[in-house]
Amino acid sequence: MALATAPSDPHARLHYNMVHAHDTFKLGYDTILPRLADPPKDDIANFLGYCKAWAHSIECHHNSEEEVVFPFLQPRMDFSSEIEAHKIVHAGLDEILTFIDAANTTPASFDAAALAEIMTRVKEPLYKHLDEEVAHIVPENMQQFSDEEMRTMNDALEAYAQKHGDPFLLVPFMRSHTPPEFKDSWPEMPWVLRKVVIPYALALRYRGYWKYAPYAMS
């Protein structure tokens, strides 16, 4: 279960952030799949953009793990199963993104049932990976690292996230898939970002996408 406030213990921080991030990916999936039964044919470009934002968010999240988290933890913990799971999940995401790109090129060819079939195949390996990963990084398993080591890794992960990916896509996706009860606490950020910059600046570039998201931006 996701905590409402960020833990002060650096050993719990990775798990806290990962649980919340994984919940946004599951919520995106659970929003997209039912909608494919009756897709918005008069707004297909924005709907496909929303689907692409979901897939791209997972890919960028996994990139950050492979570049920062796994190399840091791997010397003392075995993350080989997570690395293999990434390969399986990314094969499915690549198929989804290729399908979306083709549909954007020729909207009349969009086959919602075919995309739903791919999404259905992706669910089991995706959800299994998301759940197993957060179980692996519970705070008690992080105790083999010092407080300073965990702070360094958490800071490096945050820095990586800020420097990579499209903030006009990734940040609005995250915020519009964060339940209201967590919006003021996760992720930690200044009030002006939560209430002004994200909803009135970052979210505007792809504003047509977010009508399909489950929650308001701020």
How would you sum up the major sheet? none
- Overall morphology: globular
Structural class call reads mainly alpha
What's the β-strand tally?
A: 0
Order of helices and strands: HHHHHHH
How many helices? The count is 7
Oligomeric assembly: single chain
Instruction: Give unreliable regions as ranges.
Output: none
Gyration radius, in Å: 18 Å
As a percent range, the share of strand residues is under 5%
Distance between the termini: 22 Å
How would you describe this protein?
The protein is mostly helical and 218 residues long. 66% of the residues lie in helices and 0% in strands. It has 7 helices and no strands. It has helices at 10-35, 44-73, 80-105, 112-136, 147-163, 167-175, 191-200. Helix 2 (44-73) runs antiparallel to helix 5, helix 2 crosses helix 6 and helix 3 (80-105) runs antiparallel to helix 4 (112-136). The chain is globular, with a radius of gyration of 18 Å. The two termini are 22 Å apart.
